[in-house]
Amino acid sequence: MYVRHLSVADFRSWGSADVPFDPGVNVLIGRNGEGKTNLVEAIGYLATLSSHRVAGDAPLIRRGATSAIVRAAVVSGDRELVLEFEITTGRANRARLNRAPLGRPRDLLGVLRTVLFAPEDLALVRGDPSERRRFLDEVLVMRTPRLAGVKADYDRILKQRNTLLKSAAAARRGGDLTTLEVWDEHLAATGAALLGARLALVAELRPYVAAAYADLAPSSEPVDVTYRSSAGDVSGMAAESELAAALLAEIGQRRAAELDRGISLVGPHRDELELVLGAGAARGYASHGESWSFALALRIGSFELLRSDGVDPVLVLDDVFAELDVSRRTRLAGLVADADQVLITAAVDDDVPASLVGRRLRVADGTVVPE
Question: Looking at the domain 1-113+311-371, which fold is it?
Answer without folding.
Answer: Rossmann fold (3.40.50)
